[in-house]
Amino acid sequence: MPIYVILVTSLKPLDEVSLATMWTLPSAIDFSSYSEAFTKLAPNFMNSIYLVVPATLLSALLGAMNGYVLSKWKFKGANTIFTIILFGMFIPYQSILIPLIQFLRTIDLYNTIPGLVLVHVVYGLPITTLMFRNFYASIPDSMIESAKIDGASFLGIFRHIIIPLSITGFVVVAIWQFTNIWNEFLFAVTITTSDQQPVMVALQNLSGSQIVQWNVQMAGALLAALPTLLVYIFAGKYFVRGLLAGSVKG
Fold it and tell me: Whole-angstrom Cα distance, residue 40 to residue 135?
C-alpha cells in the first residue's frame, strides 16, 4: 500500500495532492514531477554512482581476502583477529563521527567522494569478512592442500581457485554492500557537503522549507530507489542462491 500511494502521488499534479485524495487515482497522468525531481537529483545521483561502485568492489575484494586467510590459512591468533574484526559491526556510527571527521581532515579527504569510499570500505569489512569466511569454510581443505603441493602460491590459490568458486559469494556481498552504501545517510550528510553529497541527502533536501511538493518528493524517492530495485530484480536469484550456499551460515 505505501508503494501504491508513492506511485499514485508521483503521477499527480500538485493541486491534486492532498491527504483526502491520497488513495484516488490522478485525473490525468503527469510526469512533470519526475522531470523536476530528476533535474534536481541528477548531480547527486552521479555522486552516488561514483561512491557505491568502488566502495562495493573494494570492500568485497578485501573481505574475500580476509575470509580466505582466516578460513584456509589458520595461524596463531586468527580467531582473536576475526573476533576483533567482527567487533567493528557493533560500533554505532554516531560514536566515531568526531574522530572520523578529524582523521579525514588530516589526510585531506574530508568533503570528498574518495573519503566517503574509504569510510564505507572500512565499515563494510566486518560483515564482508564474516560472509566470505563462512562461505569459504564449505570449500574442502584438501583442494587447497593439493594446490600447495602443486606449487601454487598464496595469491595463486586465491586468484585461480578461490575466486572462481566464490562468484555467488561475491554477488551476495555486492548486493548487500550496494544496498547499504546507496541508502546510507548519516556518513553522507556529515562527511560531505553540497555538491559532493550522494543522492539520499539530495532527496531529503527536496522537501524544501515553505511548500512541500509531495508529488516531486515521491517521484524523487522512486528515482532514488530505482538502482537498488534493479539490482535485486536482475541479481536477486543469485542472492538467494548464495545465501543457501552458506555465505551467511554460522
Answer: 42
pLDDT tier at 203 (50, 70, 90 boundaries)? confident
10 touches 218 (CB < 8 A): yes
Ranges of beta strands (E only) in the chain are none
The pLDDT score that the predictor gives to residue 208 is: 67
pLDDT at 55: 95
Alpha-carbon distance of 235 to 115, in angstroms, equals 28
Q: How far is CA 19 from CA 15, 35, 216, 236, in A?
A: 12, 23, 16, 35
Amino acid at the residue 75: F
- Per DSSP, the three-state class of 13 is coil
Helix or strand or coil: residue 113? helix
Decide: 245 and 171 in contact? Cβ < 8 Å: no
